[in-house]
Each structure stands twice: as structure tokens, then as C-alpha cells.
Description:
about 5% strand, alpha+beta, homodimer, globular, six-stranded mixed sheet
Amino acid sequence: MPNTILQESSKLTPGILSLIPTLYVGWADSILSPSEIEFVQSKIKELDFLTEDDKAYLLKYTDPRNPPSDEVFKTWKLAIQRHSTTLNAEDIASLESLGLEIAKKGIGYQNEALWKAPQTKQAIRDIRKSLGIQNRDGARILPGHLVKVNPHTDINIVLAKEMQEHLDGDYKEIGDKIKKLLRDPFFAYKTLRNKDEYRDHVLEQLKTLARQGLTSYSFPTEYGGQNKPGDHIAIFENLAYHDLSLTVKYGVQLGLFGGAIQGLGTESHHRKYLKPMMDMDLLGCFAMTETNHGSNVKGLETVAVYDHASESYIINTPHEKAGKEYIGNAMHCTMAAVFAQLIVDGKSHGVHAFLVEVRDKDHNLLPGVRIEDNGYKMGLNGVDNGRLWFQNVSIPKENLLNKYGDVDDNGQYTSPIENPNKRFFTMLGALVTGRVSVGLAGNSAAKTALSIATKYGSQRRQFASKDGIEETIILDYPTHQDRLFPLLAKTYALHFALQKLNTDLAADSDHKDRRKIETKAAGLKAIATWHATHTIQECREACGGKGYLAENRFTDLKADSDIFTTFEGDNTVLLQLVAKGLLTEFKKSFHDEGVKAVMKYIGAQVSQKFSEYNFTATRNTNIEHLRDRDFHLEAFRYREKKLLYTVSQRMQGYIKKRIDSNQAFLKCQIHFLELAKAYVDRLVLRNYVAAIDKMPEGDAKDSFNLMCDLYAVDTLLNNKGWFLENDYMEGSKTKALRRLKQKLYQEVRPRANTLVEAFGIPEELLGAKIVLYN
Amino acid sequence: MPNTILQESSKLTPGILSLIPTLYVGWADSILSPSEIEFVQSKIKELDFLTEDDKAYLLKYTDPRNPPSDEVFKTWKLAIQRHSTTLNAEDIASLESLGLEIAKKGIGYQNEALWKAPQTKQAIRDIRKSLGIQNRDGARILPGHLVKVNPHTDINIVLAKEMQEHLDGDYKEIGDKIKKLLRDPFFAYKTLRNKDEYRDHVLEQLKTLARQGLTSYSFPTEYGGQNKPGDHIAIFENLAYHDLSLTVKYGVQLGLFGGAIQGLGTESHHRKYLKPMMDMDLLGCFAMTETNHGSNVKGLETVAVYDHASESYIINTPHEKAGKEYIGNAMHCTMAAVFAQLIVDGKSHGVHAFLVEVRDKDHNLLPGVRIEDNGYKMGLNGVDNGRLWFQNVSIPKENLLNKYGDVDDNGQYTSPIENPNKRFFTMLGALVTGRVSVGLAGNSAAKTALSIATKYGSQRRQFASKDGIEETIILDYPTHQDRLFPLLAKTYALHFALQKLNTDLAADSDHKDRRKIETKAAGLKAIATWHATHTIQECREACGGKGYLAENRFTDLKADSDIFTTFEGDNTVLLQLVAKGLLTEFKKSFHDEGVKAVMKYIGAQVSQKFSEYNFTATRNTNIEHLRDRDFHLEAFRYREKKLLYTVSQRMQGYIKKRIDSNQAFLKCQIHFLELAKAYVDRLVLRNYVAAIDKMPEGDAKDSFNLMCDLYAVDTLLNNKGWFLENDYMEGSKTKALRRLKQKLYQEVRPRANTLVEAFGIPEELLGAKIVLYN
């Protein structure tokens, strides 16, 4: 034991020991606000079981400006551990009984009557409560020990913490940082029904994030950034546990506007704009979408005509419905990244992005610019969406974000990418960050909803099985489990796939794997956001009338996240992109090896693999087989590959009949969507399995595996019609899977609260009155 | 031709004729508001192609206080028909060209140049537009003729009107009346974000409904009512095309509070309270639900203790969470119908309802009553929900609603229903009206959403199949059809089942079929409201970003209707009721004929019927068979009966093993839910088929049949896993059904707009900017 700790240890009298557990947890959570402190200090001064020295010591460590040093902290922890080894579960069930028990072991313990008096315990409890600490937090300071666990309502904190470490992975530090900040009363939820007040509030919060250095993660260090794009997305993911208006505002300013400058601009733009943009001195919007063109960005109609005489671009909105629409930051910004068709010498070179000043320093609109408020929306009313139109707005030549296309000194268009189509998709590649972010944010919203519904479901009772006995906890009803647990399992599964995607994207600075990442991002964004919408709805309903009250969070959660299925790419359109991507990959192999050969090979692979499997497995209802990960992976693979093969066959058939390829695509459109879903399902399972494989054996791994079983079985059952139709399974097997699913619910039930606790969402952020403790 | 018409006909000069089509449609729609009239009159005075006599005639019929008589109306109609028989589609494509064409046939037509001048046509167009008339409305006045129909965007008005007649059925008159009223500018949608303003506004609207005599339909004529309970529910259904806050407020005051007085009270209560309640002089709430007891009404904890000495009841809320919760009208009311456990001489007689005054004339709370606002909710913020607590509130003996239980002059409890359980369920029977109403209102909300999404989808274009050609209408994408059309089909199907239920309920004044109706109401309420939530979500997404703007209605539609799945009985709980009801029926036959015999009989029926069918049908992919209504009915029946049989078998098995019946029920709970869903699916199909069978042959019937095909095929496919699992169909057949479904989309597509027009929801009530015409 180092000297300082020994020295510090000697100071711990019985009086100090009695309050150490409470203080320790208080500081560990860093939740000491000024008003709490004041109350605690006045309380300490009153305590008759403390000496004046005790009081002085304790008061010192309730001063927020004087946090205990690491040594002091360790001393406290060791003292608690040392003195508590012989205690039983009851003694450590609350921080106050723990404190009183270890006080007994302190030097000079006497006057037992005073220590045993009920008001002594009550005094410590009051201090704990005024610090906002729940008793279950006590377990954190006793590794190896647990507070007595009631499997129906309590949480295995140690397991939850361990699982959270796995979930947070590389993003633990940034996640803890942002969550700690968001727990500050400054960020406490407010009911702001008036959009203008709400928008001002969100802007203020965004500026606070900037002051805390949280807006610079995705930008290069040479311009004041931190060059950690993965952390940037993780901030977005964690902000999404809080107000989604703030999250989206953050994404608009930094991901979209800042992202356009960084991704489409060149050094001079970076030098001039990145720093003020990060500092919120330059607020900008991303003016891409138009009323008549959302999904079809290529078809947008705003034009930027180059005028060589004045070396400038003239921006025009050709008609009302070619105005920019739903543009976030429209009412607050002074600059817009405007996407327009670049015309040089009467020739169009396709969509490019231009920086256009839209307001002066007094926030007046500049000549030729018209901006209108989009008004109230279903949700996200803290974000100032608006419409923009331009009439003969002239901007200097250097305001073209010219990384992928420029006009040279002779007034000639030049581009490093010759193929205009390829150029367009390269420029749009910047959207991938947004899609990964929104996918993760959707999953955060789902986690919040599941945390509230699970916690409420394990407290709420309704209907007694017999008169005179206590009513049943609603989470014990199989139908309630059937409502929540498969969604919980899928949320876990999506988490790992989305997180891996974030890490892969951050690592792909040379854009080598960009196309693959884009396909994955499109697919995961679609599936994760639909999952979020569905999950939040189910959780709202699972909380009954309570879920309908604004005070229980679902109101905002549902309304704010609803647009996720549409923005950053409409989900249906994205899944078509995914399917087309898969087909292109498939076709590539045609070109290398010839159509017939490849079709034959794949066909053989699908049917051979299948017939090998067929004899043994279609009717195998053995429970080990049904929980076997290889069986899951193979079934998911088979579904994807067969859908790919059959849709290719159909397309081939139509094209042979000389049906126009677009018509052929339309005929197969629903089939394509099925393929894309099968692809994402398999991607998610593979990533989940890979993540679990890396974990050490133990409770945490077992819990992840249990959720993975449930995800796999649930997905198979959701597609059982397809598997039966294709003779991949017989009815006896799908029925066995259904029985297994209900068995899995029974395994999930005792850890349900632990499983949502593992998401690590602080109560302040859950923001639901029905699940506030004490 | 009657004389008056002949006489009137002679007045129709060319000038008058030119404006007759426009005026006719204007009056037919009764949408002439004062400001419109003023504009039209000043316009008419200016027209140089009218004589002074023409002007006088026309001005006379633009005075809202002077509507044209039936004769005048008929004259106009005949004149238009007579003069337009030789016209071609182009001539009648607009009301102005139609007017100018028939003017030519008028006596004394001359000065052709003036009539052909563009400004003449423009002047008539201006008048049409200022009356808010769309050209497509012109078709209404030309039965047998149609405006030129573009199958992609236009509407076959004649067919839509004919279909609407079938949909409205017996409730056409009341529906037209209420819709006409709601189109009045007084009811125009407002964005009221502040709940208190919104609540005042809704209360004002409710009072207007009362003044219009629309609040008395469900009450007996002897107390000022109209004794048309079916019409009362139809009003609720039609109000649900408008603001759902108003709808719910109406339901709370009349259905719940008024319904309790009428259904649970006796003559003295009716005499004293019904009239002021209908007139909104007595605002009341229905205080049943408590924080700790919602679904389990039987377990509610508020008590009413009878005190014989004072002949009064003392009402008490035993603890905070036994307070009444989510109570609509809580902030506006002066009286509450309070549900409490009745205690007489220390003995509980179960839940009874008591009338408790809660506020005095100055709207101050009375002693012992505490009421708190429930605050903001997800939606329905125009309804004043609150919480109520009672402390020693004394009410006179006569305030017990004593139809099913009373205390006699000796202080003894008496009841016409001896069995307390039966008594409880009889009292709760009053809730059935609410369930039928909410089911219908949910379907109204779904119709609104589908009308908006279909109309928008057939205007909106995105992505061209090739460069340089017009972009594709999004409703032409199979995935978009897949999104909307099955939901449209189910909405049609649910409509007939719900409407039939309303009519059956109204006819059941002697409560003879009450239990059956309750089962149906529980099941249909659950399925219809889930369908509404799902449909609105899908429609919102189908409108992309536009669907997220408050101006396009989904914001309110989604938020307001969301609670439908929870209130008037939580859907999951209701489906369990349904399943239990079915099992009870099933068990009844046990008692009559012995367990074994019945089980054997049903088992044989299920398997025999099945094996007969088996050889010929499991793999029959003939399209006529797949569209054969008998095949659909038989498959739906089989699913319901087999689920009933198997769940009974399972229950029997558990009970044989001496498993407690409640435990056994829990083990089968998910199975029970499946059974309830299968029952409702079949109920809906049967009612739909019965309604169609009564229709005369023709386009309307064909269209209903097409939607019925789609409903049946879609439902079969949604359960294809089950049918395959149970060897009722082979994969070849389910695949054929899938192909058929896409074929049906192609048949639905050209009439999609007509199919939503047939719902007859006025544009003012749709309230979506994206689908306002012109």
C-alpha cells in the first residue's frame, strides 16, 4: 500500500467511515450540484454521531472545487472493501447500512446506542437521497459483491457494467464524457412548445458543446480539429440519448455543412472556414434537397452559371418548387452550402456545391436570397428547418467547393474524375457519414425506449392470478415479453453492426472500401431506423396510458425520431441502392467469367449446399441444433444467396425477352427489397457473432449469446414463410423454433433489467417520470 | 316535365347558361361562404357578356339566404344534361368550357367573338376558383358522362359517389350533415400549441355541436334526445375525419359521462341530468381509470362507504396512486361519474358509479376534491385530461347510479343481479359503445391518411427511367403500391365489419346479443386501431419529408390517434378477452355434450374438412381458385378453428397435469392472441362478403370485390407461415398468391384515387397542403 494511502487511511474514524460509501458513490458519479452540496453540508453539520474533526474532513470533500485526489479515492475504496468482506447481503443492501456496518470496524468505535438509533440511519439516507443516489449504485464500489438481487426488478450492476464496456468498445471514453456533460442541469429537458424559443435553446446548447470542445472531432488537427471521425459519430450517437433536436442540429452544422466544406472543398476552404464553423462563429446549412427533388439529387434544378468576365457564379432557383426544402439551420445560418447544376459556357457539368452567403452580420437576408420557415413539424421543433430560393445571387469563383470539379483560369471546366456519373456519386459519398450517424442515433432512441418500457414493465402490476394475492408484474406476461424481448435482441445485434461500420468508415480515410461501406451504411440505416420507429411505438404501447403522457418521454422520442426513416436517404430508396449494389457485384463476376458459367456456379452452389443440408436438417428440431450459431449463419446466408440468385435469374429472363432494363427492374422491385433485407439481416448477425467471439468467457458473453440466439431465432421466424416455401425447413422445425423462442424469453426475463442497464443511459437522459427511482 | 321546371327553363339565356354549371356545383356543395359570395357578386356585375337581366337572375342565386328551390335546381340540371349530350370530352373537361358550350345552345346566342374571347373563359374560371370548386367536380352534374379521366391522377367521380353510397349505408344523412358543418370556416384547423388555448377552442366547438343538435342522438326522446344510437356513433366516426381532440371530447361528455348516467342510472337521474348534459350546461367526466388500475377495473381502490345515519356515501382515495388518472374533461367539468368500491356495513359489493360534484358554479374545487392537470400529452392536447383524488367527500344517497345495485331504505344492499361478477361485467357493458366508436374513429383516421398519401403519391414524381423523359409517378412503383394498397384494402374491409357492429349494437336495445357484440367490439377495436396506427405511419413515410411537416396533417393524425390502441381497453388485454370468450363458448358445448365427445368432434371436423380439401387444393395455383371467395372463407375459417382446437387441447393437457388454470393460461397466452386475431380476420372477411353480396352488379361492386380479393390474399400471405406449417398450402400455392397480389396492384392502380375519393372526406377536413387542388 503506498504511503499516501496509508496516511490517508489513518484518518478514517468511525464517523467518517459511516458516510464514506455515500460520498464515494456521489463523487464517482460526479453529480454534486451546488444546491445539493449546500443541503448536504448543512446536514453534516447537524449530525450528532460525528466529531468536529469528522465534520471538517467530510465538509472538505463535499466542496465541488475540491474533489478527492486519486489517492483519497483509492483509500476510501480500499477501506470499504477491507471492512466489508465479512458482511452479508443484508448489511450491504443499502449504502446507509453499509456505512453503519463499516463504521463499527473503525478505530475508537463506541456509544453503540447512538449508532443504532433509527435517526442515525435516516440521516445518512437523507444525505444519500439528496445526492440523487440510488442504493443499487452501491454495488459499483464493491466489485465481487452484489447488492441482493431480486431477479424481477433488480439489476446486476456488475454484469451490466461489464456488458456496457463491451458495448461501448473503443468509444467508452468519449461516451462517458458526453453523457456526463448531458447530465448537467444545463441540459435538463424542458417543455418548449414554441418553436422559436426551442430553437434558441438548442442553439445555446450547441454552442455549449462547442465550448466544451465537442465539435471538432471529425476535422483535421491542422485546422483545430481532433481528427477522430469515429469519435465524432459516437458523440452523435450519445447525443441521441438526449434531445434529438440538439443531435440533429449538431449533425447539420458539423456533419453536413462542415462535412461539405471538408469533403468537397480544398485547402483554402479548410483554412478559411473550418475553425469558425467548429466554434459556431459561422453557422451554415446544407442546401441540397429541393421541393421537387429529394431522393433524386441528380435531378435537382438550382443552377450556378459561371460568368468568366466577372469570375463568378450566378445562382438561380428556376421555379418555386425548385426551392431548397427542409434545410436545417436555415433560420440561424449566415452561409449555405448550395448544391446546384454547374453550367459553364452553356454546358452542364452536373451537381456541385457552392458556398453562398445568405445573411449579413445583422442577420438580414442578402439581396436575391429568400428564406422561409418550414413551420412546425411532427418533431425536431428545436431545429430551424426552412426553404431557400435564389435569384441572380452572384458569388466569387473561389466559393465553388472544388475538390472534384473546378473552372480554370481560362474559364474551362476541369475535374479529376472524368465520368460525370462517377463524379456525382463520389461527391455524394459525403452522405455516408450521415447515414452511419442516423443509424446509430436510431438505435440510441430504441435503447432509450426499451430502457423505459422494460423498467416500467418490471414495476407495474396488473391483474392478480387469484383474488387476494398480489397482482402480476406485467413483464411476467409472455405477451409482454413477446412485445419487448425480440426488439431488445435486435437492438443489441444492430449495435455491433453499426459500431463496426463506424470504425470501418473512420479507418477508410483513403476511400479504398468506400463502395462497400456505402452499401452497408445504406442498408443498416434503413433497417435500424425502421427498427427504431417500430420499437418506440411498441414500447409506448407497452407503457399504456403512461406512455402517452409527455412527462414519460415517448412523445418526443417518437415524434423526433420519426423522420429518421426518411432523411439522409428514404429507406425504401436506400434498400434499392443496396440491392443494386449486390447485383452489380454479382454482375462483375459475370464479366470476369461469363454469364452462363457464373449463373450455373451460383445456382449449383445454392442448390448443392442446400441438398447436402436438406437430408439432415430441414426437420431437425434438436434444441442444440436450433441454437447452433452455424445453423443460424447458414440459414441467413442461404436466404440472401437464393434471393440474389433468383432475382438475377428473373432479370436475365426479362432482358432476354428484350424488356427494357428499367421495366425489368420495376417488375422485380419488391423482390429486390427482400434481397436487401436478407443482406442486412445476415450482415447484422455476422457482425454480432464476430463481436461475441472476441469476448472472454463469462456472464457477459453468455448474455450477449443469449440475445444473439433470440435475434437469430426471431429473424428466422419472421421469415418462416419464406423458409417453408423454399423447403429449407419443415413445419415441425419452424414450430420448434417458435417453442424455443418462448423458452428464450424465460432466460431473458431475470436479466431484463440488467440488459437495458447495460446500455448505460443515465436516468436524467431517460427523462421518464415513470422510471425515476425513489 | 312539370310546369314549374318548364317555366324556369325559359329564363335560361345564353348568359345564364354559361354560368349555370359553376353555380350548380357551387350550390350542390353548399360551400358558399360570405366572403366568397361577395367576390362572386362583384365579379358577376362586371361581366360584359351578361345582360342586366342575366345579372339579376344570377345575383339572386348567389345569395346564401336564397338557395335555389328544388325546381330551379332540377331545371339547371336538365338544361346542362340536355345541352351537353352532343359534347365531346374536351368540351366538358372544365366547368368554364362546359358553360360556354351550352351557352351556344341558349336562345338568342349571338356575338360569337365575345364568347370566344379568352377573358370570357377566364372570368368564369375566376368565379369557379373563388367558389373553391375543382373542375373534376363538374362530372357530378353529368351522370353518365365523365370528365376525361387520366387513370393515373384523375378520379372517376360517378363511381366514387356510388361507392360512397354503399360505404355510408344507413348513415349517409347524418354523415353528410356533420361533414357539411365541419367544412364551415368556424371549424377550420388551427395550430394551437398551447394546451389551454386549444382546450378552450375545442370546448367552444363542442358547444357549437350541441347548438346544432348533434349531441342528443343517443338519448331517449322523452329527455330531449333523438334515440338514434347508431347515428350517435356515426357522428363520432365522422368527427374523426376532423380534429380528434374534438372527437374525443365529444365521446367523453356524451358517450362516457352521458352514457354512464343513461346506462347505469335510473329515471330520476335521466330526468335531472340528461338534458343539461346534452346542452353542455353540465360538463362531466368519467372517473374510472386509476393510476394503479387501468385494465384491471375490478381492482380499483377508490371507496364509497355508505353512511346510513346521514343517508350518504363518503368517497375516499385511499392513497396517491389510487387517484383517478387520464380523466378527460377533468379541468372543465363540474361533475364526475366516479367508479368506486361500494362498502355497505363494512362489506364490499364491488365497483359502482357515483355522481360527485367536483366544482362549484365559479369553477372552484369543492372541499375534499383535488384535481391536477395531466399536462401535455403526445396528442389530443385539446382534451383536458387530469387526475382526481377524493378525501371524505360526502354525496347524497340518490347520487349512486343505481340501475344494477342500490341501498334500500333499511340500509341494505340490493341488486337485480345476484352474482357480483356478472353484475360487474353488466355494468362494464356500457364500455361497448366506446369500443365500437373508437374502432370506427381509428378507421376514419386511416382513411384520412390513405386519402392524403394516395393523392400525393399520384402527383409526386421522382426518378426518370431514362434521361430526358418525365420522372415516374411514385404510385407507379410496385414498392409504393405494396406499401399503400393492402392497407387500403384492409381499411375497406374493416369499414363494413365496424359499421355492421354499430348497427347490431343499436338494434340490441334489449341486450339479447350483448355478449357476442362485446366480443366482436373488443376484437374489432383492437385490430382496427392497430391498423390505424400502422397505416398512418406508412402513409406518413410514403409522403417523405412532406409527411413530416405539420401543415400536411400527419403530425396531428399520428399523435392524436396513437392512444387509440390503449384507451377504451388496451388492445392486448382486449384480444385476450376475445380469446377467452371464444374458449368459453367452446367450453359451453363441453358442458352440454361432454368434453371428450366435443373435442373429438371438433378435431375430426378440423382434420376431416382439411383432408377432403387437401388432395385437391394445397397445391392449386389456378388464378380463379386463388380469387375464389369460398377458398378465402374456408382458409380463414380453418385457421380460426384449428387455433381454437389446438389451444383447447393444450389447456386440457395442462389442466390434466394439474397445472393451475391461470398458469396454463399464461403458457398459452401468445397462442390465445393468435386465435383472437384469426377470429377477427374471419369476422371482417365474412362481413365484407355479406355487404358485397347485397350490392347490385356494376362497377362499384366490382371495385369492392377487387379490394376484397386484395384483403383476403394479403391476410393469407401475412399468415403464410402458419398455413405452410400446417400443410394447408404448399409453397407453390403461397408463391402463386404472392404473384396474384402484385397482379391485383395493377388492377387497383388506375382506380386508386377513386377508391380514396369514395371515402368522401372533404378537402377541408383532409387538411393537407400537399393535396389541395389548384
